[in-house]
Every structure is written in C-alpha cells, then in structure tokens.
Write a structure and sequence with these properties.
This protein has eleven helices and nine strands. The chain has 372 residues and is α/β, with parallel strands linked by helices. It has one domain: Zn peptidases (Aminopeptidase), CATH 3.40.630.
C-alpha cells in the first residue's frame, strides 16, 4: 500500500469519526421509557409468582394462617427485590388486629369469633420525584388472602366435600392474579430511571374474604395521609379469560363513578384490551378492597376481567387455568393508567353527575390532596 493511499484511508476514517461524533444522538422520550418498563411485565414472571402463591403449600391463604404468613413474606421479598421502600419506614408490614372488624362483618356470620384475628398488610412505596406532587399518593392494591381449605371456608366455599382428594381453595384468580399483578407492576415502574411525580403505594391486603378487613383497617390506620391520597386502583380477578367478561376484555366496578375511568380507557386503547361496562359494574363496587377508600371519600375502582368465572371460590381455581399472555395485556393497561394518574397535576375526582357517588363525595377528606 502506498504512503499516499494509507494517508487517504486514515483521513477518511478520521472524518467519519468526527462526523459520527457530531451527529446528535436521540434522547429517549418519557413515552419510550414507559414502554420499555411495560415490556418488563412478562407471562413467565407472572406464572412463576402465581404458581407459588397459589400452591398447596400455602393451604389457601386463610386469614390468619401460616400459609398467609408465608405469602406475606414472599410478597415483601418481591417488593424488596423491586427496590420499593418499606411502607412503614422499617419493614413492609402493617400488623393489623382485625378481631373487632371481623365481629362486625357479615361475611363470616356463620362462625363465632372466639380468638384474635391478627394478620399483616404488605406495603411498599415508590417515591415520586422531588416536587410538590411527591407527597401525594396513588394506591395500587389487591388482596392476597383466600378462603383456605374445607376446614376454614364455611359458607364462603362453593364445594363442601373433597374433589379427588383436593380440599384446598388455592385462589389463583381470586385474588392471586391481582396480587402478582401488583408485584409485577411495582417491579416494572420501579426499574424506570424516571420517577413518577406522585408517590405510588403498592399494598397487598389481608382479610378481604372476611369482608374487606385489611383495607378497612388501613383506612382507619393509614400509613400515608388520606387527605393526600388521590386514588386507589384495585386489581381483582384479572387472570381468567373463560369468564362473563370474555377474552380480550376488561371491566371496572363503579364504571361511571370517577375520572379514573378516563385514564383506564386511554390506557386500554394502547394495550389491546377492550373495556366493557356490564350490569354488574355498579353492584360489585362494594365487593372488593376499593370500597373502604370510597367510604373515606377517596376516588377508586377495581379493574377486573371477570365478575363471575368457573371455579369462583371453588377447589378448581388453580394457576394452570390462568391466561397469562392476556394477563400481561391487562397489567400493562393498569401500569399505563397508574403512570398517567401519577404524573397528572389534576387529581382524580368523583363524578358529580352520578347520584350514586353523593355519599362518597360527602365523605371526601376536608383538605384537598393537592392544595397543600
């Protein structure tokens, strides 16, 4: 190679490097960051977590029981792995004495409450970015308890005798599916470099099957100020496609009750899920852990893919029947909506045109959640 040719090649390479160095590199947008986070929500992760939570080892997660305690420790470990801060500042547990609440519950009138009922809510928080909104809170919740075994279920269980030796109500869809969804969404959003403007509080409640006891306890003993809590988005029964709602669809309780629905609908269009309103949406508003938040005036709803499904409170509610690819879509829908609400300066509101919301509007905290 001649000296001239070598110099020419060196000059060309140098020029190309300079050209590349000067070329502006694209800056990732907030939208692309969110999409990357959503891609972390995977069927394999959901399947792995749910196959443990709904395994026979946990004996149906009755409140209280050793199986429920194992579930609580597992959920806390997942919150810890995601990098969430402990909800109470020390660890991820809110110890809840549910005894008096249980005595008032209509769900377990078939039995005497002659012993303390003490269990734990599991709470982690993703702190918002520095700013005025970081001291306001969006709650994302599900219940991790179920009805236990034939020995504990009483009138709550569909079956009263063993089915081929099976006596454990594993509660995969109800509501193991919501619980692992909370874990998955927490992990996805916590891994983002960009933080939401509002803080997001992730809670797995105990005692729902006894009458929303864990969430009632929380609203009476909140870890974060209720007058700075702007919404609760509750996830319940989000894993079955063979349901009254149907594959590819999702629904909400209190569909027309709050402006949260607008964020859900917007997110659904990007997630490949069709939102449907049925005759069950209003009656079921009081049937899950969103309801105690409504009683203290906080806008809320429950996102679900079924009100009724085969094996509801039955021995056959097993993780093998979950439609995990479809569940990924629903979880990404929920995560998008949560992100929208957590970054919106306008806080969710009750629908003042719907007379069914009157008592919830009257119960709203006296001080605006964003006025401080």
């Amino acid at each position: 190679m001649s000296i001239y040719l070598a110099a020419l090649l060196l000059w060309a390479a140098s020029g190309n490097q300079q050209s590349l160095a000067k070329k502006p590199q694209p800056v990732p947008s907030a939208t692309s960051n969110v999409e990357r986070a959503l891609n972390r929500i995977s069927a394999d992760s959901l399947r792995g977590n749910l196959s443990f939570l709904s395994s026979d080892l946990l004996a149906g997660r009755w409140t209280p029981s050793p199986g429920l305690d194992i579930a609580a420790e597992f959920i806390a470990s997942r919150f810890r792995a995601a990098g969430l801060e402990p909800g109470n500042g020390t660890d991820y547990f809110q110890l809840a004495d549910l005894t008096e609440l249980a005595k008032q519950s209509g769900e377990i009138r078939d039995r005497a409450i002659d012993h303390p009922i003490i269990a734990r809510n599991v709470v982690g928080v993703l702190r918002g970015s520095p700013g005025e909104l970081s001291n306001t809170y969006v709650i994302v919740s599900a219940h991790y308890d179920h009805i236990g075994t034939l020995d504990t279920s009483g009138k709550l269980g569909k079956e009263k005798t063993e089915n081929n030796g099976d006596r454990i109500f594993n509660g995969a869809n109800d509501d193991g599916s919501g619980t692992v969804s909370v874990i998955e969404i927490a992990n996805a959003l916590a891994k983002m470099k960009q933080r939401p403007k509002r803080s997001i509080v992730f809670i797995a409640f105990c005692g729902e099957e006894l009458g929303e006891l864990g969430s009632l306890y929380y609203t009476q003993h909140p870890l974060f100020p209720l007058n700075r809590t702007v919404a609760d988005i509750n996830l319940e029964q989000v894993g079955r496609s063979d349901s009254d709602i149907g594959k590819g669809n999702a629904t909400l309780t209190g569909y027309d009750y709050t402006t949260i629905t607008l964020a859900i609908q917007r997110a659904a269009k990007l997630s490949g899920i069709h939102m449907v309103k049925t005759k069950e949406t209003d009656p079921y508003f009081q049937a899950s852990d969103n309801y105690p938040f409504a009683l203290v005036g906080i806008p809320d709803l429950t996102l679900a893919t079924s009100f009724n499904f085969p094996d509801y409170h039955g021995l056959g509610d097993e993780w093998q029947k979950i439609d995990f690819p479809e569940m990924v879509k629903v979880d990404r829908l929920a995560a998008r909506a949560i992100w929208l609400i957590a970054n919106d300066a306008q806080f969710p509101e009750w629908n003042s045109q719907n007379e069914k919301t009157a008592k919830y509007r009257k119960a709203a905290p006296g001080e605006s959640a964003v006025a401080q």
